[in-house]
Design a protein that fits this description.
The chain contains 13 helices and 4 strands. The protein has a domain at 69-302. The N and C termini lie close together (5 Å). The protein has a two-stranded antiparallel sheet with strand order 1-4. It has a two-stranded antiparallel sheet with strand order 2-3. With 366 residues, the protein is mostly helical. Helices cover 72% and strands 5% of the residues.
Length: 366
């Protein structure tokens, strides 16, 4: 009789666990992340970690302006995340949100510059909206068409479309630059405010936030209670099953990406017409890529994505405040943000899987 070594532990998939337990796991991950960040902060900077965490909250909530900026950042990030969610639920890996937002920004700015003084403001805003939505939809439709017809790699295709969109914006920034030679566009139509979205009371960001709130409700209904939402879910589970039950997979892919691109284009419209009133290559601010993480963290549920967007925007704004208050390199605050997000994403492993430990590391074999 000999003894055979067995693993000390093995991983097995969990069954369905109570929602309360999932939130306990996520909460424990956040606590552990904060403890690790506190240790790193003390070791690397000598700062009191409690003061650092207090600064993060103050950077978001100490003034009404900071609260509104936070809400605006949440709204824009959430809007792009909502655009990504249907594609990812369908297992179409759309990495092109950044480019789709930028072409929406470009289409909006083009309308403001070219016809800003030629049509009434209400008509101009409608034209801008249609142009931005159409531009974003077309930009997403191109890779969707080639995926549906020729099974091209959508990840690379949509990623490359980002760079094309970025260079288009860079080109027209030079064409429209004000003043000449500055390499940038100043505030468009600042004197006449042609094409600027109306402000609700004294709140600059409120209209954008309300629009995104409506989009969130509509996307929740679309993805959970419509035939199109059901088809997206079926295609995401298995394309073969979808074809077997009579779903036109190519049509679903193209239709879903048109919707994704249209929402990204609408987001570009809100950025230019609603708040920034100009266009730059950095206007999307990398949120097209961050939105991918938000969509995954929220498991493609629009309601859950609200909280994920809040977390990311809160950490980014707080990290910026840390850098300013303590004269730290921006990279340090990004390290803290990255650790917290890593722990939160990592907690999903323990929600879906569990570690089973063996009492002994060996067993008898005959």
């Amino acid at each position: 009789m000999s003894k055979v070594k067995t693993p000390r532990f093995h991983i097995s998939k969990r069954g369905i666990i109570p929602r309360r337990q999932t939130w306990l796991i996520r909460g424990a991950a956040i606590v552990l992340a904060l403890i690790l960040c506190a240790i790193i902060t003390t070791m690397m900077t000598g700062l009191n970690p409690v003061k650092v965490y207090t600064t993060i909250f103050e950077g978001n909530f100490s003034t009404s302006r900071r609260i509104w900026v936070l809400m605006q950042n949440i709204a824009i990030l959430l809007a792009i995340s909502l655009a990504m969610a249907p594609a990812y639920k369908m297992r179409f890996w759309n990495i092109g949100g950044e480019g789709q937002v930028l072409v929406g920004c470009l289409a909006t700015a083009a309308c403001m510059i070219v016809i800003g003084d030629k049509v009434p403001n209400a008509v101009l805003i409608i034209i801008m909206l249609i142009a931005a939505v159409a531009a974003g939809a077309v930009w997403a439709f191109i890779p969707a068409f080639f995926k549906a017809k020729f099974n091209t790699n959508e990840t690379l295709f949509t990623l490359m479309m980002n760079y094309v969109g970025l260079q288009l914006v860079a080109y027209y920034v030079i064409v429209w630059e004000v003043p000449k030679g500055s390499g940038k566009i100043g505030i468009i139509n600042q004197a006449t405010q042609a094409g600027w979205l109306p402000q609700i009371g004294s709140y600059k960001y409120l209209l954008n936030i309300l629009v995104v709130a409506v989009i969130t409700v509509l996307m929740y209904i679309y993805m959970n209670y419509t035939k199109q939402g059901y088809e997206i879910a079926v295609v995401g589970e298995s394309e073969n099953t979808a074809r077997y039950v009579g779903i036109n997979v190519g049509k679903v892919i193209m239709r879903t990406l048109i919707l994704s691109g249209a929402i990204c284009g609408l987001t570009g419209f809100l950025l230019v017409a609603g708040t920034n009133h100009t266009v730059t290559t950095t206007l999307a601010g990398g949120r097209g890529f961050t939105a991918v993480m938000v969509a995954w963290m929220g498991k493609f549920n629009p309601v859950a994505m609200i909280f994920a967007s809040f977390l990311i925007a809160f950490l980014e704004q707080g990290a910026s405040e840390i850098s300013t208050m303590y004269s730290l390199n921006q990279s340090f605050s990004d390290i803290l943000t990255g650790i917290i997000i890593f722990f939160i994403i990592g907690s999903e492993f323990f929600i879906n899987y569990k570690l089973n430990f063996n009492k002994t590391g060996e067993k008898e074999a005959q």
